[in-house]
Design brief:
Number of strands: 21
Helix content: 25-40%
Radius of gyration: 24 Å
Largest sheet: 6 strands, mixed
Structural class: alpha+beta
Strand content: 15-25%
Length: 579
């Protein structure tokens, strides 16, 4: 992973000290509140319902143990003992005091972390596939390219005041785990027939009030042209994007208004003009090799036991094929966790371990300080000193040797981070909602608890199979509800919390916008409705058919009929399901 050098650390420390002075001037009444708002946003600080919220950047989702330990220290000293991991591979602290934020930023700078450009109308944190560099289906590690984009875009003076926030995601695998089609710019890395790195560039994706799937602006962009082409896109957006209407200021609106062909023509002209003027940034072979050096593959000394373990260790069959067997065969909980919370690694000596932040009774995405410390120690000992943050609000240990799986599971189980529910209905995405966010219309954490309590049995969850439930407390869609197999959106109706349900969304290769099921659902009935939808799927599915495939085949109507059937013949004095 990229390690900040002395210049980087000095810049971050100076930035934190500058913010300390800005806070002091604001407190003294010498800084206009509107001006201070922009300064704090440029440092990742929001004003939420009950307190400030600080959003800390985790570029392309990669942390080392020292950084995670520092996040634990921040949670313990300056917050209420926990942090919340987001769908943008960041972490948020919900209770910092304004006067303490400069100290937090200084503490983060010491370990190469910051909150720069995690808010405001600028290029936000660059995100990537959380399995980058380790996935079995990877074409090329995208993180070196993410780092080049991060360095180019951070504090870029030309793009510090865009019409609106701007998000870039990169993937280098066959499976899209970075949701690139839902970003302002999405990049899919591939190799051409000569083995050269190229990019498929998508533009104009986004969620929020007007969800739009990104469109292709370049099918095959040469790698050395990447930064120049990105700069041309941003210049066109900066010049023509609307600034008079908050909800029509994103690049997706500009692309929609102009049409993709006209937008492409303007970008290509801007790009040509920059090249003719000698002003287009390029990526040299030395640039990319230097960046790749930061992400050199972890080497392994393959011993006999690791090699023999293979992809499927034969537990309980009487064959002593792996050193895990004597312990693991006695604990079915480990076998269940290994099946559901680990996946194949590109190196057969390893498994990739998902750390579930979706334990029943806890807010999805939350991690307390003690767990952070324990997980940091675990990563240092068993995962090449590396932890990843996923878009699904889980964490990943990317380098766990097969021989260490039982030890890792045992420690994760001890700190309540081994819930074997990755990919199930209860592995849901959930924004903080009305409990914290000043923009939210409805709560989400309570709804997540409601669903967890109603559908709790693991064997039942495994029978249901993969269901990606995503929930947002408002139209800003921080919970990515538009892309949920089941999407839940909180809405306000005359001061009461109601919820709209969508079905059939996806953020994977088959990116789809969910279709609305029908009228909004009362808060108390959400879990019942989700269970009704699942029961309908069980009844109607074909052999081996996944939930999303069934929705695509059937459409929403059969599910709608099941959910609203009793509303056709309302019983006297019964509480209405919908309004």
């Amino acid at each position: 992973m990229y390690r900040y050098n002395a210049h980087d650390r000095r810049q971050l420390t100076q930035r934190a000290r500058q913010f300390r002075g800005q806070v002091r001037r604001f407190r003294a009444g010498a800084l206009d509140p509107d001006l201070f708002q922009q300064l704090r946003l440029r440092n990742g600080l929001y004003q939420e319902r009950h307190a400030h919220m600080l959003r800390v950047a985790i570029p392309y989702g990669v942390l080392n143990s020292r950084q995670l330990q520092r996040l634990a220290t921040v949670a313990r000293r300056f917050d209420r003992g926990y942090g919340h991991f987001t769908t943008r591979q960041n972490i948020q602290f919900n209770w910092p005091e304004l006067d303490q934020v400069p100290a937090i930023l200084e503490a983060l700078a010491e370990v190469g972390m910051h909150a720069i450009q995690t808010s405001g109308s600028c290029v936000r944190n660059i995100t990537a596939d959380h399995l980058a560099g380790v996935a079995a289906d990877e074409i090329e590690d995208p993180r070196p390219w993410c780092e080049l984009i991060r360095q180019w875009s951070t504090l870029h003076p030309e793009f510090n005041w865009l019409p609106r926030k701007f998000k870039i995601a990169v993937t280098g695998a066959h499976a899209d785990r970075a949701a690139v089609q839902w970003h302002d710019i999405g990049l899919r890395l591939f190799h051409d027939g000569a083995g050269q790195t190229r990019f498929r560039v998508l533009v104009g994706g986004g969620m929020g009030r007007i969800p739009v799937i990104g469109q292709v602006i370049a099918e095959s962009l040469a790698a050395d042209d990447l930064l120049g082409f990105l700069q041309a896109i941003l210049r066109v957006y900066n010049r023509y994007g609307r600034r008079d209407h908050k909800y029509r200021s994103r690049i997706k609106i500009l692309v929609g208004d102009l049409g993709i062909d006209e937008f492409r023509q303007r970008v290509e002209k801007e790009w040509r003009d920059m090249m003719n003027a000698g002003a287009a940034p390029t990526v040299s072979a030395a640039d990319i090799e230097q960046s790749r050096a930061f992400f050199a593959p972890v080497t392994t000394a393959n011993d006999g036991d690791d090699a023999a373990a293979g992809d499927g260790v034969a537990f309980g069959d009487g064959k002593n094929t792996g050193r895990l067997q004597p312990i693991a065969v006695a604990d079915s909980r480990f076998l269940r966790w290994r099946e559901h919370n680990t996946v194949a690694h590109r190196d057969p000596a390893y498994r990739i371990v998902y750390v579930s932040l979706k334990a029943p009774g806890r807010a999805p995405g939350d991690l307390n300080a003690a767990q952070m410390d324990a997980l940091a120690a675990l990563a240092k000992r068993y995962s090449a000193d590396e932890i990843r943050v996923s878009h699904e609000q889980n964490l990943v240990l990317p380098f766990v040797r097969r021989a260490d799986l039982f030890a890792v599971w045992h420690e994760l189980n001890r700190i309540e981070l081994a819930t074997p529910n990755i990919g199930t209905l209860n592995d849901m995405i959930c924004c903080p909602g009305l409990d914290y966010c000043s923009l939210a219309n409805a709560g989400t954490i309570g709804i997540a608890r409601q669903i967890n309590e109603r559908i709790a049995d693991l064997d039942r969850l495994y029978d249901i199979g993969e269901v990606k439930l995503k929930m947002s407390g408002c139209m800003n869609a921080c919970g990515h509800h538009h892309a949920g197999h089941i999407g839940i959106l909180g809405v306000d109706k005359k001061g009461a919390e109601w919820y709209q349900i969508t079905l059939g969304g996806s953020a994977d290769n088959d990116t789809r916008l969910g279709a609305r099921l029908g009228p909004a659902i009362a808060r108390a009935q959400v879990a019942e409705v989700v269970e009704t939808i699942i029961d309908a799927y069980i009844e109607l599915r074909l052999d081996g058919e996944k939930f999303l495939d069934a929705v695509i085949r059937l459409g929403v109507e059969p599910f709608k009929q099941k959910v609203y059937a009793h509303h056709q013949k309302p019983r006297r004095h019964s509480r209405p399901l919908a309004a």
